[in-house]
Design goal:
The chain is an alpha/beta fold. The chain has ten helices and nine strands. Strands 4-3-2-5-6-9-7 form a seven-stranded mixed beta sheet. It has a two-stranded antiparallel ribbon with strand order 1-8. α4 packs across α6, α6 packs across α10 and α7 crosses α10. The protein is elongated. The protein starts with 11 loop residues before the first strand and ends with a helix. About 30% of the residues are buried.
């Protein structure tokens, strides 16, 4: 009997209606599929019935990886590894479709890692990922919203994001204490060119380190009090971080790179 491990943030999806919604959201026949955190294989089996061309799963838990291999044998390729240390760009040359009931304790870290490591050519075709609702709300939040922040800006840099549905605790075993949300991600064809994504991460971190304060102090810290960039981008430094659009943060990062590269 498999017991969920709290240390790995395991909550296994058991709701067939949600599973059907996930596997029928996009066509995966003859596609290459990657599932992150397959757990006991409750989603893995239905995905297989949709006849993907190749099917990889990444599972950190040794016991679950063994069980998955026994259950599905050669129908899937089980990669017993930590997704945070796994290089998806080396998986295969063709683009993959990603499914993931992400462990709640590292879901944000996984997403940011994928965004930071994205090349100009994407390794995935699209992604359907499960997050705790609080995190999903931050990912999809718009300007002037209390949930809008670093995660919103980083996520929307190279990705189009659409909410599929909310998922409630009874859909999992064991039941989490919070609601969850399914999100659908596709690559943007056009996005702002930033030489080093860590600069976008740095700028958003500094601006949102105190989101209730005005922009002037973090701006001066980044640009040494030089007002030319704020004037060029028409930024009112008396506003607060949540009052600047994603586009403005992308432009700020470009200007930062131009000045300090």
């Amino acid at each position: 009997m498999i017991i969920a491990k709290k240390s790995l943030g395991q909550n296994f999806l058991i709701d067939n209606k949600i599973i059907d919604k996930i596997i029928n959201y996009i066509n995966i026949k003859d596609k290459i599929v990657l599932e992150v955190g397959p757990g006991t294989g409750n989603l893995t089996g239905p995905i297989l019935k949709k006849q993907p061309k190749k099917f990889y799963v990444v599972e950190k838990d040794n016991d679950l990886a063994i069980q998955l291999t026994k259950k599905f044998y050669d129908k899937i390729k089980v990669i017993n590894n930590d997704i945070l240390s796994f290089d998806e760009n080396l998986l295969i040359k063709d683009k993959v479709i990603v499914f993931g009931n992400l462990p709640y304790n590292i879901s944000t870290e996984i997403l940011i890692k994928w965004i930071i490591n994205l090349k100009n050519s994407f390794w995935f075709e699209c992604m359907i990922l499960m997050f705790q609702k609080e995190v999903a709300d931050r990912i999809i939040a718009n300007i002037n919203n209390s949930n809008y922040g670093r995660l919103s800006i980083l996520s929307n840099w190279k990705l189009n994001i659409k909410k599929i549905c909310d998922v409630y605790p009874a859909s999992f075993k064991p039941q989490p204490k919070i609601d969850s949300t399914l999100l659908f991600f596709t690559p943007k064809k056009n996005f702002y060119k930033i030489n080093n994504p860590k600069n976008l991460e740095k700028i958003t971190r500094i601006f949102f380190s105190n989101r209730r304060k005005m922009l002037r102090k973090p701006y001066n810290k980044l640009f040494n009090g030089d007002l030319r960039v704020s004037e060029k981008l028409n930024i009112n430094l008396n506003l607060r971080p949540q009052n600047l659009s994603c586009e403005t943060y992308f432009k700020l990062t470009q200007e930062y790179e131009n000045l300090f590269s």
